[in-house]
Amino acid sequence: MRNLLDFLVKYSYWFLFFVLEAVSFVLLFQFNSYQGSVWFSSANAVAGKLYETTSAVESYFQLSKINTELTQRNLYLEQRLCKLEKEKSDSVADSTTENSLLLKSLQPYRLISAQVVNMKWGRKDNLLTIDKGEADGIKKDMGVVCGTGIVGIVYLTSAHYSIVIPVLNSQSNISCVIQGRGYFGYLHWTGGDISEAYVDDVPRHAHFKLYENVVTSGYSSVFPAGIMVGKILHVYNSADQMSYRLRVKLSTDFGRLRDVCVVDNTALSEQIEVMRAAEDSIRMKEAGKAN
Predict the structure, then answer these.
(1) pLDDT classification of 158: cutoffs 50, 70, 90
(2) 242-289, pLDDT tens digit by residue?
(3) Does the reported pTM lie above 0.70?
């Protein structure tokens, strides 16, 4: 014990030096936006590689469970295919029209496959990391989806990794509609249960039922319309009594999220910019005539 104390006393100045250095770096990166962004970008690449390796090991031990789920899913799809083939023979024209409209709605988008390499849900403002970045064509504000519904929106990118703000983040604000009803609101997560969120600002005159689907509205260039969000579990009045608040069971299982797709909305964004430019031009001409 005495030898340990002698050692600490002898090198106390070095220990003090390292402590002060650590404190100075924390203050530098926390209270200076430029240095903080440089540190975040550099650390993101290193951390992303570490998360990717850890994710690969975890994926290996989950292969048995994944194969079981895939078998069940394939059985369901086979049954669904048989049913669709039967329905197709009864209404060829309607089916052809529906497929054409679906293909047309997906034309502006390109899907970039990626995997989640890091995610933690213990905070109110959660983030997740995926293994694709700028080199793969991913940019900020692109939407992220999975096979069962929406995941979130790209927040920050590096060459080979991207940070995503998921639905499970208090800053997330995604436009949604009640499927088949046309009434829209905004999806928010307030913390707590990762399987539920809320849709706010639904009009008071809206008519709907419990367990109806909530899907993306398509009112922005982030997500295509009709991507699954969840099912309505409960209806509340808003604080000002002017609208409804819906508690929604999310369709995405964030606790087991692994494979995702990033929605490349470049073409659609260009269309929206052209449309806005045309609208601005028309407003300017009308204002000129009025004057």
Answers:
(1) very high
(2) 899 999 999 999 988 888 889 887 665 566 566 667 667 776 776 666
(3) no
Q: Which two tokens stand for residue 286?
A: 């009308």
Nearest by Cα to 197 from 255, 145, 248: 248
Q: What is the pLDDT of residue 123?
A: 86
d(CA 63, CA 257): 14
Tokens representing 179 are: 């499927």
Q: What span, in angstroms and rounded, lies between the C-alpha atoms of 79 and 72?
A: 11
DSSP H helices in 91-139: 92-106
Residue 74, classed as helix, strand or coil, is: helix
Of the candidates 62, 124, 70, which has an alpha carbon nearest to the alpha carbon of residue 256? Answer: 62
Contacts of 179 (CB under 8 A, 6+ apart): 212, 213, 214, 215, 226
Question: How big is the chain by its Cα radius of gyration, in Å?
Answer: 25
Of 130, 203, 191, 163, nearest in space to 41 by CA: 163
Nearest CA to 51 out of 264, 263, 258 is that of 258
| pLDDT, tens digit (0-9, with 9 covering 90-100), for 55-102 | 777 766 666 666 656 655 655 565 566 567 656 655 544 444 444 444
Alpha helices in the chain (DSSP H): 2-10, 12-31, 33-61, 63-90, 92-106, 266-290
User: CB within 8 A of 266, min separation 6: which ones?
Assistant: 110, 139
Q: Which two tokens stand for residue 90?
A: 């009864």
Give the β-pairing of 243-250 and 174-178.
Answer: unpaired
Residue type, 177: V
